Amino acid sequence: MPEAYIVDAIRTPVGRRKGGFSEIHPADMGAHVIAAVVERTGVDPNAIDDVIVGCLDNIGSQAGNIGRTAALAAGLPEAVPGVTIDRQCGSSQQAVHFAAQAVMSGTNDLIIAGGIQNMTQYTILCAFAAGEHYGLGRTDPWTGSEKWAARYGTDVLSQFAGAEGIADKWNITREEMEQFALTSHQRALDAQKNGHFDREILAYDTITADEGPRADTSLEKLAGLKELAPGGKLTAGVSSQISDGAAALLVASEAAVKAHGLKPRARIHHMSVMGADPVLMLTAPIPATKRALERTGLSVDDIDLFECNEAFACVPMAWEKELGIPHEKVNVNGGAIAIGHPVGASGARIMTTLLHELERTGGRYGLQTMCEGGGVANVTILERL
């Protein structure tokens, strides 16, 4: 079977809500990393077949096919197309999958795949709110459908309720989640201090580092936070941060690697996507990872590094428990609780971090997965070259 290679991967710093990126046009954020990938690899821009960008809540300046807008803002030739996709939090991971599938099918040879999200300007689920404003629907996602309600016995769905359900089902306490969150911040701060992000981050003007990690976080401060729901376990401290950011990767065929004199950094060893219970919503990484390992013949021991998105602390915690994955191999440079979760860009951000950490540590295989709205999860396994 033809191979798909990652030639380069780069990201902006991840900005806090109302932070450094709060007034930056989302297309300019994307253009920043798209142009950098072209410049760093030296690839002929005219040879790029497509630009595939993940982004959700496509309203305002994130509407109108921001993948195309960002490509043009990056200075790519007008002949290079662009497209925007929405698989919720997995949008940019799926963008890489679509790029790899196009390359492996022989349809394309060079594709830039990535993601863009400015959550300061467009808060999560704001597209639903816009629909309600214009009389086009309710603000609650995936609800209001009579057929949906008939199938699942409910008309109200919530990622917060799903996360609470996961914490209850896997007997995860608030205190355990707070320790997980503290570790996420500590790991991210250590990674910043030791320069682990230096090669993957492209500064944007004066924004040079991730703004999310908090040096003043402590178990005492986390314990003092108010629950998101009365009687619940979740707080803002054990949840992913609202963030802004962008990331881009160059995916190439073997023919393109030879024709353009490129040096691939990783091979996409496996890619898949799987659905699960949409009411509990955030559990799909468990069966999706299990199936990916079965299909590849790899075991947990064969994987050197794991990335499981920290939408809420209980999501990777339940995933680790169910699959027997040691926490010391998971999100080793911190996750979305500390770094942030610019939803449409997170998949590409995580993949960029995973690739660079495999290179830094000399690991061979890295597995990435994340929960996604509607009860879906993508899985990618990279092989470092």
From TrEMBL:
The keyword Transferase applies. Keywords: Acyltransferase, Transferase. InterPro entries: Thiolase, Thiolase-like, Thiolase_C, Thiolase_CS, Thiolase_N. Residues 262-384 form the Thiolase C-terminal domain. Pfam families: Thiolase_C (PF02803), Thiolase_N (PF00108). It comes from the Bacteria. PROSITE patterns: THIOLASE_2. Residues 5-254 form the Thiolase N-terminal domain. Belongs to the thiolase-like superfamily. Thiolase family. PANTHER family: ACETYL-COA C-ACYLTRANSFERASE, BLR7806 PROTEIN. NCBIfam families: AcCoA-C-Actrans, PRK07801.1. This is Acetyl-CoA C-acetyltransferase.
